[in-house]
């Protein structure tokens, strides 16, 4: 297990269940099937099989590019930080079929989509036997702390803009607005300053930007001089609507 560190950024690029823990001095082993583990990058076979060591080398080669995604925004958004988890489906050619942000508490669609774009351009090892899939968690450390809010603090404001948010459309096969899970920052005066999204399906970057732009135009309660962070499942606005 290798931890890649830099100012304000920690990236975890490792293979759960296929590589021994950081404190172990044993030689990494490859087992089939790999036992589950948490908070690590997981290389999983869907039909094909990905070789964990080769995947690690590819991700480490892209470390600097993913770090730049954060650093280019962190000067302006010094309070942005959190966990980002991406799932990559890899074609038999080694090219990504899709990249999905399946979990994110980061709250910056610019950083999230930059990391996605980096992985979409990456040539991965060729899976054996068909398509492969890997899960890559990355943690970005905020440079300044924030407070937290419950989702109820922003729900009524978002509900008033439900129709405008629903009007944001993406490509077929990508996550709809109601499938997004949003992380939002609200600053002094009630101004929304940054938003990011996760979904079980790949996101259309244009849809994510559309939703972010419309949310950031809204005014919320004043958090009284501090920056606060709040998570909100967009599906709460739409209930069981189809």
Structural write-up:
This protein has 242 residues and is α+β, with helices and mostly antiparallel strands. The chain folds into two domains: 3-140, no CATH class; 147-237. The chain is 25% helix and 25% strand. The strands form two sheets. Strands 1, 2, 3, 4, 5 and 6 form a six-stranded antiparallel beta sheet that branches. The longest helix has 12 residues, at 63-74. The chain is globular, with a radius of gyration of 19 Å.
Q: Helix- and strand-based class? A: alpha+beta
Beta-strand percentage? Answer: 15-25%
Q: Categorize the overall geometry.
A: globular
Mean pLDDT, all residues: 83
Number of helices: 6
Which tags fit this structure?
10 strands; disordered N terminus; 2 domains; alpha+beta; globular; six-stranded antiparallel β-sheet; 242 residues; 25% strand; four-stranded mixed β-sheet
Topology:
Layout: E1 3-6, E2 9-12, E3 42-45, H1 52-61, H2 63-74, E4 82-90, E5 96-104, H3 109-120, E6 132-140, E7 147-148, H4 152-160, H5 162-166, E8 181-186, E9 192-198, H6 205-216, E10 228-233
Parallel strand pairs: 7-10
Antiparallel strand pairs: 1-2, 2-6, 3-6, 4-5, 4-6, 8-9, 8-10
Helix pairs in contact: 2-3
């Amino acid at each position: 297990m290798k931890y890649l560190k830099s100012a304000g950024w920690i990236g975890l690029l490792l293979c759960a269940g296929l590589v021994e823990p950081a404190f172990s001095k044993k030689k990494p082993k490859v087992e089939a099937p790999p036992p589950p583990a948490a908070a690590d990058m997981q290389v999983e076979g869907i039909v094909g099989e990905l070789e964990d060591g080769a995947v690690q080398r590819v991700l480490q080669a892209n470390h600097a590019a993913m770090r730049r995604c954060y650093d280019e925004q962190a000067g302006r958004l010094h309070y942005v930080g959190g966990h980002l988890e991406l799932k990559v489906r890899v074609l038999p050619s080694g090219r990504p079929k899709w990249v999905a942000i399946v979990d994110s508490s980061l709250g910056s669609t610019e950083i999230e989509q930059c990391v996605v774009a980096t992985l979409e351009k990456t040539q991965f090892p060729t899976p054996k036997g068909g398509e492969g899939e890997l899960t890559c968690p990355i943690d970005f450390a905020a440079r300044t702390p924030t407070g937290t809010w419950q989702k109820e603090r922003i729900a009524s404001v978002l509900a008033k803009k439900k129709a405008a948010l629903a009007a944001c459309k993406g490509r077929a096969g990508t996550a709809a607005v109601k499938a997004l899970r949003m992380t939002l920052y609200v600053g002094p005066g009630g101004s929304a300053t940054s938003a990011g999204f996760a979904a079980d399906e790949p996101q259309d970057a244009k849809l994510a930007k559309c939703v972010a732009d419309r949310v950031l135009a809204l005014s919320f309660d004043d958090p009284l001089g501090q920056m606060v962070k709040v998570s909100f499942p967009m599906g709460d606005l739409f209930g069981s609507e189809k």
